Amino acid sequence: MMVVVVPQASVTWRGWSDYRGTAGFRTPSPAVPPAHASRPVVPKPCAPVGCCKNAGFVWEWPVYKSKLREEVPKCDEHPDQNLNVYCNSCEQVICTTCSVLDHEKHSLTGLPEAVEKCKKKVTEMVQKSEKRKTELSTTIEEMSKSRKDLDTMFAYTQKKISKKAQQEITKLKQEVAKIKKEEQKLLKETSTIYKDKLKAFEAVQATNRKELTQTEHKLEEVNQLMNQASCYEILELQQKLLHNLSELSGKQPQQVPDRLTFMDFEEGDRSLGRLILEEEPKAAEKPTPRPPRSCVKEKWELKSEATNIGVTQTYISHVAALFNNKILGCGYPRGITFTSSGDLVVAAGESVQVYHRV
C-alpha cells in the first residue's frame, strides 16, 4: 500500500506584519490564511501615523515550500533505500530492493520516464477536459441564444393571437352594428305598414258603424210606423216599406281583405330576413276526388211540411236539393249578385236571401 505524505506548507505574507492592529484593517486569523489577498502597502515612514496617501494594492500570493522538492522519500520497508523506481503493474513508487524482491516480474520504469508518462496522460485528460469545458460553454451560449429566441417567439405569438382576436372582435362589432341597423329598418318598415293597415281598418269600421246607426234608425221608424199607423196607411206604404227594407237588408257590411290582416317575417341566411305582407300560395294540392254517388235510389228525409199557410195564396217554386239532403227554396228570384267576399245574394219575392260560400 502506498502512503502519500502531504508535507506541511509554510505561508509567508509580505508586508503583513507591519500593519497588524492598524485602524481600518482587519487582521486575518493565522490558522486559516486566505488563498489570495490584496492589502495596501504603505511606506514605513508613514506607518506609525497610518498615512494612506501613497498606498497601493498588491496581490499577495502564498508561497508553498514543499520538502518533497528538497528531500528524496525513503522506502517504508527498506528505510535505507530511496524511492527511485516506478512499478507500472502496481502503479506505485518503490525502491531498488523492492523491485528485485517483490516486483521482479512487473513492468518497471524510472521515475523521470514515469513522471513524463504521467504528465502526458494528465495533459491529454486536461485537453479533453478543456474541450469539454469549451463545449459546455458553447452549449450554454447557444442555449442562452435559443432561450432568447424562445422568448421572442413567445411574445410574437401572443401578439399575433391578441391581434387576431381584436380583429375578430372588430368584425363582430361591425356585424352586430349591421344587424342592429337592419333590425331598425325592418321595425320602422313594419310600423309604417301596420299604421297603414290600421287606417284601413278604422275606415271600414267607421263605415260599418255609420251603416249600423242608419239601419237602427230606419228599423226604429218602421217599427214605429207598424205600431202606430192604421192598416190603410200600412197597406198604402207597403211597397215603399218593402223596397226600403229590401235595400237595407241587401247591404252587406264592409270587410277588409284578408291580406290586410296578414303580416309575417321570414328569416334569411345572408341577411336578417324580409317582411312578408301577403300569404304566399302553398304548393297546389290535388283536389280530393268526390266520392262516387251510388245509383241506388235513396229515400229523401222530410225536413218540414207545409200544410196550412194562411188565407193568402202561397206557393213554393225553384226548390233545390244539395247532395247532403238539404232542401233550399228561393221562390221567384228577381236579382242575383255576389259580394266582394264571395257570398251569393238573391232577391226573391219579398225577401232577400244570402248564401255564404263554404
Automatic annotation (TrEMBL):
Residue ranges the record marks as coiled coil: 162-189
Q: Could you cite one Gene Ontology molecular function of this protein?
A: zinc ion binding
Please give the start and end residues of each transmembrane region: none
User: Which Pfam family is one of those matched by this entry?
Assistant: zf-B_box
| Residue ranges of domain B box-type in the record | 70-111
Keyword entries, A-Z: Coiled coil, Metal-binding, Zinc, Zinc-finger
Q: What is the lineage of its organism?
A: Eukaryota, Metazoa, Echinodermata, Eleutherozoa, Asterozoa
Protein's name in the database: B box-type domain-containing protein
Tell me which InterPro entries the record gives.
Answer: TRIM45/56/19-like (IPR047153), Znf_B-box (IPR000315)
